[in-house]
């Protein structure tokens, strides 16, 4: 708060006290060191709550469990088939419908087992395991998306909180200015026009607060959507915005970046599908054994048999199936190349934008904000000396607030870039746990 009194010794002392308070408030707001309430939500807590509460993440997790159950039975032989029946039962003559009168009539019971080769069962098992990994990739991608969106929502709330504090700070200054000008007017040291100008600035400041409150309420609704928690404030500690992702080699990053991780696992699944198609080219044999009982006056019998599918048109059936799976493998590899290039380009672009934005913030903090504060002091000094107007003082204060809000908005932009870059990567411990099959 900067006094708008005409020069006096009391005014000078008041000006010094108020300037100290205003400077301290500015430092607190700008550095983000304002104490948070006991119920303030941290960024890590918000992300943890969101991942735990996300229905889509739970659905993806259930899909992983379903794929795991399929994989557990993929290498099993088909169930044997029990075969029961009556052969050669007479339907005419004196022995009709008698199961024991005719020597050709037999009551039969047997079992048939389709035999799947060991190589084919291993190929099916490998394919099922690749399907599990693909489901895990989809789950990890969903987790990464929830982490990123929650982080962005949390950061928006943080900077909306700071914008509201800035608006309240200037409103407090304008309230004190109005009181000072009104007192000066009563002492014939300020004009009625000055009082009206101060009142207008106070009204504008209060409207700024309402707009900031509305923005904060909207941001809190966005955060509650992810955390499923009635959040009223977040901890006033911003991340350091240190970018680690650009320094990770692509060969390592593909294990944690969802898009590339999924593309790699799609290749593995396509190769497993091709291997199964190659094995399916050889048909499965079926073996059968049975026991036939005839009338007591006749001998009982046993029978054995094997069924062999005749692959008479492999070129148009099995070979085309292999060609289809091979083409899908080629498609998966090409999509992986695109995903890798897209990932690298996106990371480089985001990293460049983040670096540039952080540099702009540092420059504005070191040059623009001090200049805006100096402008307020010069306008105040000019008014005190009688060479400047009160309107110039208010205008300088308004510009100072706008510049602080500009820096706050730029910090929010940097925060969202950081979240897009760092939070869209799957946590290493979660990715490692998935690869270990836990």
Offer a few descriptive terms:
10 helices; alpha+beta; 438 residues; disordered N terminus
Give the SSE map:
Elements lengths: L8 H23 L11 H11 L1 H18 L8 E7 L18 E10 L2 H69 L5 H36 L22 H4 L4 H23 L4 E9 L7 E7 L10 H68 L4 H33 L5 H8 L3
Antiparallel strand pairs: 1-2, 2-3, 3-4
Notes on the structure:
With 438 residues, this protein is an alpha+beta fold. It has one domain: Outer membrane efflux proteins (OEP). The protein is 67% helix and 8% strand. It contains ten helices and four strands. It has helices at residues 9-31, 43-53, 55-72, 118-186, 192-227, 250-253, 258-280, 318-385, 390-422, 428-435; strands at 81-87, 106-115, 285-293, 301-307. β3 and β4 (301-307) form a beta hairpin. The protein is elongated and about 140 Å long.
In short:
The protein has helices at residues 9-31, 43-53, 55-72, 118-186, 192-227, 250-253, 258-280, 318-385, 390-422, 428-435; strands spanning 81-87, 106-115, 285-293, 301-307. It has 438 residues and is of the alpha+beta class.
Structural class: alpha+beta
Output the helix-strand order: HHHEEHHHHEEHHH
Q: Please, how many helices?
A: 10
Q: Hey, roughly how much beta strand do the residues contain?
A: 5-15%
What's the CATH first level?
Mainly Alpha
Which regions have little confidence, pLDDT < 50, spanning 5+ residues? Answer: 1-38
Overall geometry comes to elongated
- Number of β-strand runs: 4
What is the CA-atom radius of gyration, in angstroms? Answer: 39 Å
Mean model confidence by pLDDT: 84
Intertermini distance: 60 Å
Walk across the major sheet and give the strand order.
1-2-3-4
Q: In CATH terms, what is the architecture?
A: Up-down Bundle
Largest sheet: 4 strands, antiparallel
**CATH superfamily, please?**
Outer membrane efflux proteins (OEP)
Binned, the helix content reads 55-70%
Number of domains: 1
């Amino acid at each position: 708060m900067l006094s708008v009194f005409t020069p006096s010794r009391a005014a000078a002392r008041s000006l010094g006290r108020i300037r100290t308070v205003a400077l301290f408030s500015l430092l607190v707001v700008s550095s983000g060191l304002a104490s948070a309430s006991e119920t303030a939500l941290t960024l890590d807590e918000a992300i943890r709550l969101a991942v735990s509460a996300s229905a889509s993440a739970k659905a993806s997790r259930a899909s992983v469990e379903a794929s795991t159950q399929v994989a557990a039975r993929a290498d099993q032989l088909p169930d044997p088939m029990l075969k029961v029946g009556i052969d050669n039962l007479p339907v005419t003559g004196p022995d009709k419908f008698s199961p024991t009168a005719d020597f050709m009539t037999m009551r039969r019971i047997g079992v048939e087992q389709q035999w799947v080769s060991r190589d084919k069962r291993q190929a099916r098992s490998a394919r099922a395991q690749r399907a599990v990994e693909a489901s895990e990739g989809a789950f990890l991608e969903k987790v990464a998306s929830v982490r990123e969106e929650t982080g962005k929502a949390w950061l928006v709330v943080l900077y909306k909180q700071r914008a509201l504090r800035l608006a309240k700070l200037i409103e407090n200054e304008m309230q004190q200015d109005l009181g000072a000008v009104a007192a000066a007017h009563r002492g014939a040291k300020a004009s009625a026009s000055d009082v009206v100008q101060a009142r207008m600035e106070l009204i504008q400041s209060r409207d700024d607060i309402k707009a900031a409150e509305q923005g904060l309420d909207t941001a809190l609704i966005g955060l509650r959507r992810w955390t499923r928690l009635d959040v009223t404030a977040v901890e006033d500690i911003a991340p350091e915005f240190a970018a680690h992702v650009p320094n990770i080699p692509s060969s390592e990053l593909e294990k944690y970046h969802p898009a590339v991780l999924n593309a790699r696992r799609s290749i593995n699944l396509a190769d497993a599908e091709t291997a199964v198609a190659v094995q399916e080219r050889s048909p499965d044999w079926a073996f059968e054994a049975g026991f036939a009982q005839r009338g007591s006056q006749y001998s009982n019998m046993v029978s054995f048999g094997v069924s062999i599918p005749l692959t008479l048109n492999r070129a148009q059936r099995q070979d085309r199936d292999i060609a289809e799976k091979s083409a899908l493998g080629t498609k998966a590899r090409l999509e992986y190349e695109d995903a890798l290039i897209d990932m690298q380009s996106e990371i480089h672009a985001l990293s460049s934008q983040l670096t540039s934005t952080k540099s702009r913030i540092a420059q504005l903090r070191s040059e623009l904000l001090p200049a805006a504060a100096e402008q307020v002091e010069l306008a105040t000094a000019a008014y005190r000396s009688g060479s400047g107007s009160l309107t110039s003082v208010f205008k300088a204060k308004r510009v100072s607030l706008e510049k602080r809000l500009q820096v706050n908005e730029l910090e929010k932009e940097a925060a969202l870039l950081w979240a897009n870059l760092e939070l869209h990567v799957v946590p290493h411990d979660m990715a490692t746990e998935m690869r270990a099959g836990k």
